[in-house]
UniProtKB/TrEMBL annotation:
Domain of life where this protein originates: Bacteria
Protein name: Methyltransferase domain-containing protein
Keywords in alphabetical order: Methyltransferase, Transferase
Family: Belongs to the methyltransferase superfamily.
GO MF: methyltransferase activity
Gene3D superfamilies linked to this entry: Vaccinia Virus protein VP39
One Pfam family cited in the UniProt record for this chain: Methyltransf_11
Membrane-spanning parts: none
Species in which this protein is naturally found: Paraconexibacter antarcticus
UniProt-listed SUPFAM superfamilies: S-adenosyl-L-methionine-dependent methyltransferases
Amino acid sequence: MSFAAPAEHYDRFMGRYSGPLGVALADAAGVGPGMRVLDVGCGPGALTGELVRRVGAERVAAIDPAAQFAAVCGERHPGADVRVGGAEALPWEDGSFDVVLACLVLLFMDDPEQGVREMVRVARPGGTVAACVWDTATGGMAMFRTFWDAARALDPAVEGERAMPGTADGDIAARLQAAGLEDVGGDPLVVRVEYPGFDDFWEPFTYGIGPAGAYLLGLPAARQAELRATCRASLPDGPFGLDARAWFARGTVPGAG
């Protein structure tokens, strides 16, 4: 799936989550000074920014298939090697990076198996490949759970994002193992986002970003209003916070030493 929305809309919709999640992902993957790191599916650059803070822009590369996201990422992080392209054909040589990361990307790859193989290829022997994806299979990402539960209350046939790659416990780890990584494992990553009120929760869905936004904009106006009202009824009045759990796994590229 490609993303055509402007970067500022993506920031309102998912950037508020991907910022703190990027910190948690970089911690869990062991990113530290002196490493050369790649951000696969960088979007407007939330994770890229955290990597730049840790290792310096000259040691960070990033790539995204959405040209407008890659452009903004490059503007926000001058000195980083930011390119336009997909995970399935990464434009770097074998063994170029110490750590290769994919944050909330696996489910949107055209070919996740090939994407993971490419991540492994460009990581050095002994290097780390890691990924995380929201838990939409069991509802651990409260923002999406609220939306899709409301959608299914109006239409029980709605599938939502429950069956997408990486969204179930163990799925990412299985893909890393299938790609030949060793010592695969990792605990879920959890972040929390605060909302000043319901409108701040709802408006970003109307931007049409991702499966939820596309689903919403595909509904007639009356059904959109029903879905909004159903979501509204399930959330508190005034400010509130929502937790978000992402499944995470990391593995080591064999062949070091």
